[in-house]
Amino acid sequence: MEYRRLGRSGLKISPLVLGTMNFGNPTSKEESFKIIHRVIEAGINLFDCADVYAEGESERILGEALAQNGKRKEVFVTSKVFMKTGPGPNDAGNSKHHIIESCEASLKRLRTDYIDIYFLHRTDFDIPQEESLAALDLLVRHGKVRYIASSTHPAWRVVEALWISDRHHYPKFICEQPPYNLLDRRIENEIIPMCRAYDLGLITWSPLAQGMLACRYTDPSNLPMGSRGTLRDVYAERITKRGIEVGLQLAQRATQKGCTVSQLALAWVINQPGITGAIIGPRTLGQLEDLLPSADMKLDESDLRFCGELVSPGTHVSNHFNTSRWMK
Asked: Fewest CB atoms less than 10 Å from the CB: which of 38, 156, 170, 249?
């Protein structure tokens, strides 16, 4: 496994990152344990979590698995805060109150004394960033968080946060975590250049475009039962006719290369300039095994040119920023 430097932190992480969103729902605890064991065996050393995944069950499963196998010190564990975690008016957002409360709850579920990288899951336009960063600074000084980061933030908000941290001597974000795949390339316009300019890592989510680049959909108006697109409207919105067409064209290229379309789509992401790693979220051990070879795949100029003709750089045919209305 090749390891890459995560921005100015100097942490060395695998180009494939295990996303835990499916743990607990729909993936059973037993299957989740198998996936966790296999990714560690394969050399993946970063687990991506959030306080809201399966209403906290994903963190509980990961915490139990790492407690049983004794591998906690050998891997990095993340979590995130922002999304609504309860019925109260203060159970969401990036206030000092919610950040500290959410971190304490995640630590308990994860059965750990510290979170390696703590993400602001989304930017909060209702809270001054000074307050959010002060809360993160407190968690770092108390040893409960080691590094901080942003997820799906506008480039200008990340730069503003870096400036505030510099001014107040708060810890700085070490990476950004946006959506990125062949169907939504908009981070190439501002976010990737910003991260490269400020030496921030880039860990991206949805490399398979929610399954469109695995050819799991044939008709955006008739989604398969049990697919993610049937669970929430924001997921269904991402399934487009053009996205499905691109997936089928990419599958033809994958056949010519002797790999699966999922492997090619994932390899495309981790072979892009500025990308540190991509989050994979297998529901089953079989899906994981299909994705692992992509870590070692290298794409040549003809592959990159082919993909660029399918979807032009900086454009999109599927909106993976639809939970962040700031992206137009």
From this structure: 156
